[in-house]
Amino acid sequence: MNSLSSSRSQARLRLRVRPAAESHLRHGHPWLYEGSIREQNRPGESGELAVVFDRQDRFLAIGLYDPDSPIRLRVLHVGKPQNIDAAWWAEHLETALARRAGLFGEDTDGYRLINGESDRWPGLVLDRYADTLVLKLYTAAWFAHWDTLTDLFASRFPDMRLVLRLSRNIQPAAAARGLHDGDVLRGTAPQGPVVFRESGLRFEADVIRGQKTGFFLDQRENRRQIEQLARGRRVLNAFSFSGGFSLYAARGGARSVVSLDISAHALASAERNFALNADPDVASCTHRSVQADVFEWLTTSRDRFDLIILDPPSLAKRESERAQAVRAYARLAADALRLLEPGGVLLCASCSAHVSDEEFFAAVREVAQRSGRSFKELRTAHHAPDHPASFAEARYLKAIYLQF
C-alpha cells in the first residue's frame, strides 16, 4: 500500500513529536494527536503514510495521516523501518486472522476478524456474519488506499459478500468518492437481514442499516455465561435489543424470559430470532416482549425475577457525561434489585469507554452493599477474545455478576 499518488513526487511526510508522545508510541499507543506534533516537513494529505522520527532522528513509527482529525496519525507499525506494500498488508491481515484461529467451532460463523487499532488496523473493523463481511470505517484516511484495501479483502475472501458501514463523521468524505453507508461493495444485496450462527443459535443481523455492524458480537461470552446460569429461573433481559441474552437464557432452561426495550423494532427482531430457533428448550420457554423505557419500568413493575441482565447502550458518549453515567448505572442496579428474588443473580454491563472498570464496579458494589442484602460476587468480565483491547481508550466493555 503506497501513499497518495499526488504525494509520490514529494518528500516523505516526516513528523517529530513531543517527548511524552514519543514515549507513548514506544509503549504501543496507536494515536498521535495534533498537539503532540512539534514539527513536520510539509502539510500532509488524508491517508498519506507519515513517518515519525525520534529525538535521535531514528525511525520510530509509521501510520496513516489524517489532517481533518484531532488524531493526526493512526499508527500502523512501531519499531524497525518497514516497507508498507501489498505483501506487508497481506501478512498483516493474516496476523489478525491467526489471532482468531481456534476460537470458534462450526456452530459459530458470526465474529470479529479485525478489531481496529488493537489489531493494528486503525479505524477499521471487519466482522463476519455467515457469508457476509461487514467493513466499518471510522477514519477517512482509508479512502486514499481504497482499491488496495478492497482488492486485499476480495482476494482473501473471494466468495463472501462485502458491505460497507461508515461512521457518521466520515460520511461526507465518503460521499465525495461515491461511497455511502450500507453500500454492497461485492456480491448481491441481501434480501433482508443476514442470518448467522452463534454457539449453535441462529440470529439475524441487519448489516445494511443496523447498529454497529448489525449485531452486538462483543457480548458473546457474557451471553454464554447467562446460559449457564439460567436453568429454572425467571429472567429479565433489560435493554434487550434483538434478544441475544434472552435466547441464550431460554436455551439454558429458563422458565420464562422477558425482553424489555424501548424500541419496537428491536423487540420485533427478538421475536424473529426466537422463531429462527427450533431448540426444544427455546420452544418451551415462555418469552414475553415488553416495550417500555427501562428506567421507568424498573421503578413501577411488580414482577419478580431470579436473573436480571442490565446491558444498556453507552451512557457516557463523552467525558463530560461520565459522572452522570455512573449515577445512572447505580440507579439501574438499585431498581433492578427491588425485583430480584433471594438467590437471584444480577448481571450489570457497561459499554461506556469513558467510565472505567474501577468506577463501574465500585458503583454496582456500593449499591449491593447499601441494599442490606447478603451477596457474593460471582465474577467480572471484559472483552471477548475476538475483540482485543490493547490500549486504554479501547477498553470499553465490562460486566459484573452478583448473586443475592
TrEMBL record:
Residues 15-76 form the RlmI-like PUA domain. It comes from the Bacteria. GO terms for molecular function: methyltransferase activity; RNA binding. GO terms for biological process: methylation. InterPro entries: PUA-like_sf (IPR015947), PUA_sf (IPR036974), RlmI-like_PUA (IPR041532), SAM-dep_methyl-trfase (IPR019614), SAM-dependent_MTases_sf (IPR029063). It is an enzyme of class 2 (transferase). This is 23S rRNA (Cytosine1962-C5)-methyltransferase.
